[in-house]
Amino acid sequence: MRTFLALIASLGLVACVGGIDSPPTETDDPEEDGVGGGGSGSAAVEAKRLFETDVHPVIAAKCVGCHNVTGPVGNITGFVDTNLTSAYATAVSYQAVMGDRTPTGTPILTKITGDIKTPSHVALTYDATEVAKITGWLNKELEARTPGDPGPGSGTETPGAATVRIMQEWSGCMTLENFAAANMKAWGNVNAGGGGNCKTCHAQGEFGHVAANLDQPFFDIISTDKYYMLQYFSIDMTGGVAAAKVIINNRSFEGVGNRLAPHQQHPNFNPTDNNGYRALEAFYLSTNTAKLAAPGGVCGPAKLLN
């Protein structure tokens, strides 16, 4: 059941009206800085330009029928904004759309071309030119978040490769024992205003987010599926590729808990002052301690299956 629900809803919104996603930040306001994706410098400006000139026409033509920001069909993400002024900030605000921003880990691309393609997308395809445009944009998104990125062909690990490697290593350091000891199942009972507890809508990974009050399948889902893992953890590349590390994905919880656009329909909750978040801090600490102690940061085989 979890697999089916995850497939139909991994581009969902929040609670029973969607899933946890990353919100726009102050730099996500195109009116203020002309960028909007959370990166910085000329690469960020170029990433926004590539989205507007190369990617937006593709998704506006292919995806708007179901994912229009003004009226998404059912419980799915309205990430396509036909208003070009706000289109970029809207699209990049969704973790469930952007994934890890690598060509192999971004649902806006892999939901159509990858091996997790959903039944509803079987008839939808990108041609080689469209794939190249989306891939080029994603590479620039990563560059914008990685100061001093040497770029492909330099002989140095690229941001995309580092992201994949680090997430794989992190999954290998996650253990059910540490998960249970941290009491991560407390997330299932976090109350979201008038919407009830998180487990009501997310116990088995529904709507692109998992928050159960049982150690399993909660642990199994976030340790084996990178899209669910990314709701809780993200990669910090502000120090460059060599210093890249896993951090808690505060942006995802703050955006939904505070009902920031485009998550206004989700019941609000305190994103960092609840038993679930305290459990997440404890689980992060135990996993990071294991990774730092492991030779080369590799605790064991990666658990991620995608």
Question: How would you explain this protein's 3D organization?
Answer:
The protein has helices at 2-9, 30-33, 41-62, 64-67, 84-92, 95-98, 107-113, 128-144, 159-173, 176-181, 199-202, 215-224, 226-232, 250-257, 275-293; strands spanning 233-236, 245-248. The chain has 306 residues and is mainly alpha-helical. The chain folds into 2 domains: 10-144, no CATH class; 159-297, no CATH class. A two-stranded antiparallel ribbon has the order 1-2. Helix 3 (41-62) packs antiparallel against helix 8 (128-144) and helix 12 packs across helix 13 (226-232). It is globular.
How would you summarize the topology of this molecule?
Elements: H1 2-9, H2 30-33, H3 41-62, H4 64-67, H5 84-92, H6 95-98, H7 107-113, H8 128-144, H9 159-173, H10 176-181, H11 199-202, H12 215-224, H13 226-232, E1 233-236, E2 245-248, H14 250-257, H15 275-293
Antiparallel strand pairs: 1-2
Quick overview of this protein structure:
Helix content is 47%, strand content 3%.
